[in-house]
# Entry
Amino acid sequence: MKARIIITPKKAVFDPQGKTVQNTLEHFGHQGISAVHVGKFLEVEISGEEDIEAVRARMDEACRRFLTNPVIEDYTLDIIPS
Amino acid sequence: MKARIIITPKKAVFDPQGKTVQNTLEHFGHQGISAVHVGKFLEVEISGEEDIEAVRARMDEACRRFLTNPVIEDYTLDIIPS
# Structure
């Protein structure tokens, strides 16, 4: 089973990486780019038989405790059964 | 419309960030973690009326030309209509 976590800066937090990517896209001629957000992607492969909801609960706790910074980041967690 | 791009190191490329996250999860008591892959996430907001396939083609070209390093990274591109 896999847990896929996408971590992005909260919309109110200044995102200099996103701004840099936006400028680069514009420099290369891409028009109509209104915003770019840059975040992190984590894929955790979990082996062994386990209940999806139990995996979701413990990965969610890991996200809140140490994988993300909830003050400045949002995350989405998806569990993909194998 | 939004383009969501997930960039991950190719499986054959050593992923020290992934190994660090795996060790941290194990340190906090998570068992059965067989691998962790750490990558980047980009969300590009595109305004103006445009054809989905045209947006996909130009974002795909941007991914290949400068948003990713195709030697060591893989990417997935999804276009989400607004």
